[in-house]
Amino acid sequence: MPVAKDQMAIFRFRCFCFTILLLSTISSISFLFWYQCSGPCNSSETQMPWQKQSQAINLLSHASAWNHLSFSAQPPPKLLKVALFVKKWPHRSHAGGLERHALTLHLALARRGHELHVFTASPTAANNASFPRYPMTNLHFHLSQPTSAGYLDQAIVWKQLQLQNSTSRPFDVIHTESVGLLHTRARNLTNLAVTWHGIAYETVHTDIIQELLRSPEEPQSYALAERVMKVVDEVRFFQNYAHHVATSDHAGDVLRRIYMIPVERVHVILNGVDEEIFKPDSVKGMEFKRKFGVPGRKTLVLGMAGRLVKDKGHPLMFEALKQLIAENGAFRNDVILLVAGDGPWAARYKDLGAGSIIVLGPLDHVQLASFYNAIDIFVNPTLRAQGLDHTLLEAMLSGKPVMATRVASITGSVIVGGEMGYTFSPTVASLKKALSKVWEDGREVLEKKGEACRQRGLQLFTATKMTAAYERLFLCISTAGNRDEQDLCQYRG
Ligand SMILES: *[C@@H]1O[C@H](CO)[C@@H](O)[C@H](O)[C@H]1NC(C)=O
Ligand SMILES: *[C@@H]1O[C@H](CO)[C@@H](O)[C@H](O)[C@H]1NC(C)=O
Ligand SMILES: *[C@@H]1O[C@H](CO)[C@@H](O)[C@H](O)[C@H]1NC(C)=O
């Protein structure tokens, strides 16, 4: 029957079309997978294009860094009352790591209108006069004498917290920078987040490096043997904190995998630095070079900044440069190193000779911003695997390429590919090889990498980005148990 035959034909044709459609869908999906992973296939960057506008993400169980998401710059949906516990509140510009993070983040949150209460150590008599004052009425300090070991006195700060919590509006969220608030006090608080700036498991890598670099005359450190028990100890007590913020993708992975903290309680928020201060400005860079007498014939200006101590890898850098200068006349003519900061290695660097190095001394933030603009590449040979170094982020936002030791926080979150710079092992040979490569690549290549760094920096490492992510986390965990507000834990791109 012709009618049935026709229907058969139509049916076959439809099947054929459907198969073609199915096959092409499958192949385009696999192409997209292939395409995504043909670049640096980092876990934080494997989001499929169609996920961008698709259904909401549950932020609490989101595994990659929140910095990859974009949060609204509009005023927050509600103003929070936030408690911060931090061992020491820094003086404006002289602060590294944890204290810098505390300062940048919480001043920014206060500027967003939140009510901030900082529980911290009172200044010592010697620097009493210099405890900073801020013009904001929503930023409050609760000072106390630290214990002899330098920790916050837990009984006192707890009492201060209770008093503030019960006599006026209760706190929406409690944030502690590392063990500012000890786990014994933190254990029953569900609206609490702790930010780790270095955990013992990461420090094992540091200990291994230190042991490998130890000269035969130096006594063996006990740190290495003791560190593993410290890790076990941390695995036990970290559980007591409700929410954990890791400052690198690697630390997030370790907290979930080694420390066995449930995924919905581990959140990765990478550090951010002030993008208003650290930005490209070639005029400032040129002025800086003139002011400090960098000779015009130098075609490669290396820069280092921070505390000039052994832990930051200065013995390695010193030896690598010394050897390159002695072995290679062209390298010696072309290259100069600018070193900002102070510490025991400031004096030793001068032995490299005036033509190859300028020791700048400590710089404040404004000078430091000019310093980044004066250099061609920023070098960070740190031996410390824990935490996430701010200097690399500052250099990147200034549009400069970076080179650093191959530790997991850096290779996993910062220098994730050759387009941003160079990584090396913490040995003189490996550092020499990387420095030679930088010199061979030359300024043009470095400028291109610097542009890639600036783009990544703007995308991930601004103080604004970090603040927005923490604000969202705090909004989310402050609503725990409140169904009407749970939406703040959902993210729609
Ligand atoms: C620090 O200065 C304040 C007033 O600014 C004063 O009340 C306090 O006693 C001083 N503390 C010390 C330890 O000198
Ligand atoms: C603060 O007060 C609220 C309301 O009374 C209470 O639920 C909360 O547990 C208190 N927080 C702390 C840290 O004591
Ligand atoms: C936390 O809760 C447990 C059990 O409810 C209780 O025994 C303990 O004393 C509480 N700890 C603190 C610091 O409040």
Number of domains: 2
Structural class of the secondary structure composition?
Answer: alpha/beta
As a percent range, the share of strand residues is 5-15%
What is the CATH architecture assignment of the largest domain? 3-Layer(aba) Sandwich
Shape: globular
Organism: Linum tenue
Protein name: Glycosyltransferase subfamily 4-like N-terminal domain-containing protein
Pfam families: Glyco_trans_1_4, Glyco_transf_4
Keywords: Membrane, Transmembrane, Transmembrane helix
Could you characterize the architecture of this molecule?
- By secondary structure, the protein is an alpha/beta fold.
- It folds into two domains: 66-272 and 465-491, Rossmann fold; 282-461, Rossmann fold (3-Layer(aba) Sandwich).
- It has helices at 2-38, 97-111, 154-167, 183-186, 200-213, 223-238, 249-257, 282-291, 314-327, 329-334, 345-349, 365-374, 390-397, 408-413, 428-460, 463-478, and strands spanning 57-58, 81-85, 115-121, 139-144, 173-177, 192-196, 243-246, 266-268, 300-305, 335-340, 357-361, 377-380, 402-405, 421-424, 490-491.
- Strand 13, helix 14 (408-413) and strand 14 form a beta-alpha-beta unit.
- The longest helix is centred in the N-terminal third of the chain and has 37 residues, at 2-38.
- The protein is globular.
- The N and C termini lie far apart (56 Å).
- Bound molecules: 2-acetamido-2-deoxy-beta-D-glucopyranose (3 copies).
- Residues 185, 187-188 line the site of one 2-acetamido-2-deoxy-beta-D-glucopyranose (NAG).
